[in-house]
Design goal:
Layout lengths: L2 E4 L15 E2 L2 H5 L13 E4 L4 H12 L5 E3 L3 H10 L1
Parallel strand pairs: 1-2, 1-3, 3-4
């Protein structure tokens, strides 16, 4: 089962949250401190609002050697749209 990581800021998570996701803001990927909080022994799916920040965080994980990390294209907005269909 993958770990779902929301890279939005904590105040952005109000109202629309993927159940079971953990919050690790993208700034922590930028400064490298997120690497201590993201498991490297499990698949990881990153998301943000629309996909831009999670793509940035994904690059950090892949550059650090994560073997199974992805990001949700379209972000939480795409996830919410799929749930409505």
């Amino acid at each position: 089962m993958p770990v779902v990581v929301d890279v939005r800021e904590p105040d952005e998570r109000v109202g629309l949250v993927v159940p079971g996701s953990v919050n690790v803001p993208v700034g922590r990927f930028d400064d490298g401190t997120a690497l201590a909080d993201v498991p490297f022994d499990r698949p990881v799916v990153l998301h943000c609002r629309s996909g831009a920040r999670s793509a940035r965080a994904l690059r950090v994980l892949l550059d650090a050697g994560h073997p199974d990390a992805r990001h949700l294209t379209g972000g939480v907005l795409a996830w919410a749209a799929l749930r409505r269909d």
